[in-house]
Amino acid sequence: GVQTCALPISEELHKMVDKKVVVMANDGRVFIGMLRGIDQVTNVILEDVEERIFSPNEGVKVENYEVYLCRGDDTAVVALYSDERDAETDWRSCHAEPIKPIVRDRKSVV
Predict the structure, then answer these.
(1) What DSSP string runs through 32-45?
(2) What value, to the nearest 5°, has the Cα angle with vertex 35 and ends 33 and 36?
(3) How many CB atoms lie within 10 A of CB 92?
């Protein structure tokens, strides 16, 4: 089932500092790296980062960065990363459509 969180998001993220996480951006990009910090507007700072780029025609490509800043308003998901779970998938042979960007209906934003 789905777990709900009673703590504010920033408190949950602070528990993940210095742990390896997966970040999905609103534009569909996927980053894996060590969470080194967050700020008051939930900007996420990652270190030793791997960006996974999905394609329907070829396996997942990887770009590496020493440091990456994900802006808080561009971040959709932050989750703990599991080496064991990740090793279960052969990403080089995984073909997939890139994840579609999240589109917010600005009319419903208060």
Answers:
(1) EEEEEEE-TT--EE
(2) 125
(3) 10
Amino acid sitting at position 101? P
Mean pLDDT of the chain: 83
pLDDT for residue 22 is more than 80: yes
Looking at residue 84, what is its pLDDT? Answer: 92
For residue 2, CA distances in Å to 5, 25, 107 come to: 10, 21, 28
Residue 78 has pLDDT above 80, yes or no: yes
- Residue 24 CA to chain centroid, in angstroms? 3
Alpha-helical regions (H) of 17-101: 83-87
- DSSP letter at 59 equals P
Q: Decide: pTM greater than 0.85.
A: no
Calculate mean pLDDT across residues 10-32.
Answer: 89
32 touches 81 (CB < 8 A): yes
Q: What are phi and psi of 64, to 5 degrees?
A: -115, 140
What the block records as the tokens of 20 is 């390896």
Encode 6-20: b = buried (16+ Cβ within 10 Å), e = exposed. Answer: eeeeeeebeebeeeb
